[in-house]
Amino acid sequence: MPRYLITNTRLFNGDTVISDSTNILIENGRIAQISETQPPTLPPETITIDGSGKTLIPGLIDAHVHAFREELFLKRAIKYGVTTVLDMHNEPTWFRYLKNIADERDDVADIRSACHAATVKDGWPATLVRVTAKDDSIEELIGKWPDLTRPEAAEEYVTTTIDSGASYIKLFLESGEGFDMPFPVRPLPTPTAEVQKAVVQAAHKYDKITVAHAVDLKSTKQALAVGVDGLSHSCAESIDQECIDAFKRNNAFVISTLTVHASGSGEEQESREWFSRNLPDDEKEKLSSCLKFTHPPILMKNACETIRKLKDAGIDIVCGTDSSLPFPGLLSGVSLHHELWLCVNRCGLTPLEALRSATGITSRRMQIPDRGIIKEGMPADIVLVNGDPTRNIEALDEIVGVWRNGEKFG
Ligand SMILES: [Zn+2]
């Protein structure tokens, strides 16, 4: 494995800018040394990279994706410096297939998953999948999803899900009310509050955090009332003080997903097109189109206001997109750059705060202590960028190199 020395670079460690002139030695896949002075002697064959005028940041984390079984998803992610993706509902067999690839190879992003999220028969996301899927084989899949109707079943669901590889537990609380889709019933069925509470308690018993899907205000408050640790979407309806207080009471975090809200409501066409400008034609078409399946009050501009208010209240913001291969308006990797840009330009985060939300804060809140941080001894999942993304988020556009486990990609 090659040894790298990156010299005289600005270092953002996932929390703060350590120094404008740091030397970082990468050895055996790890950050071996961080110092202001260059190591006096270096073993031969060390590859030296001049980092002046550049910034080294931790590999970015997209905290909300659906990678399904697409290796391409992980390949696209790492091209944009996204070295870890957090899957928020997937087939355990598909997740394990991808995890094996990620464990064996360093030219793809790493992946963690919630595996099957907690839901009920004919609830979300089965109804969404039925409306959008093109073939009947989908029923076989949906038939395997949890149908949690009794609180007594929660613990078995949690242990089975952890055994199938889940790193955290996800709950679906979606009424479907904000969606322009031909659902057979409204509101859609969801697990009852008693079941939700039992799932959260069981997850905590086994040291796993819980995140809940909710996009409207009522469901967001409901999720917080049963004690979830985080929301997997920013509420896309105007939030009130009661909701902010509930976030504070739980010390809950929020995963932004502004890019999916923008695609859902059809907002932000201009910025989607800007982020797709250099892509090959098929990718450009996917990123510059949109879902347009929600209606007011479910709007991206409300989701931005939520992030702004929660940030002002001191709530942790975690960056995530909800990228998946089928969803238009989103593309793995580049959409996280778009997400960070929206956090800065639409929600008032500073570039430094936005970067924290895709690195150090995610590491802490999603319980992945070996990711999103640069310090000695950590796996070398790092990104070298031209310029200073801690002051100008658009600098992420110029990635010089991406390392995963000390192997340089690109
Ligand atoms: Zn999702």
Written overview of the protein:
- This is Amidohydrolase family.
- InterPro entries: Amidohydro-rel (IPR006680), Metal-dep_hydrolase_composite (IPR011059), Metal_Hydrolase (IPR032466), Metallo-dep_Hydrolase (IPR051781).
- This protein has 410 residues and is α/β, with parallel strands linked by helices.
- It has two domains: 96 residues, Urease, subunit C, domain 1 (Roll), CATH 2.30.40; 312 residues, Alpha-Beta Barrel (TIM Barrel).
- It contains 15 helices and 17 strands.
- Strands 1, 2, 3, 4, 5, 15, 16 and 17 form an eight-stranded mixed sheet that branches. The chain has a five-stranded parallel sheet with strand order 9-10-11-12-13.
- Helix 6 links the parallel strand 9 and strand 10.
- Helix 5 packs across helix 6, helix 9 runs antiparallel to helix 12 and helix 12 crosses helix 13.
- It is globular.
- The mean pLDDT is 96.
- The site of zinc ion has 4 residues, from strand 6.
Topology record:
Blueprint: E1 4-12, E2 17-27, E3 30-35, E4 47-50, E5 54-58, E6 60-66, H1 71-79, E7 82-87, H2 92-104, E8 110-113, H3 126-132, H4 138-142, H5 154-163, E9 169-172, H6 193-205, E10 210-213, H7 217-225, E11 230-231, H8 241-250, E12 253-255, H9 258-265, H10 269-275, H11 281-288, H12 300-312, E13 317-318, E14 323-324, H13 334-347, H14 351-357, H15 360-365, E15 382-386, E16 399-404, E17 407-409
Parallel strand pairs: 1-4, 1-5, 6-7, 6-14, 7-8, 9-10, 10-11, 11-12, 12-13
Antiparallel strand pairs: 1-2, 2-3, 5-15, 15-16, 16-17
Helix pairs in contact: 5-6, 7-8, 9-12, 12-13, 13-14
This protein binds zinc ion.
Zinc ion binds at residues 64, 66, 88, 322.
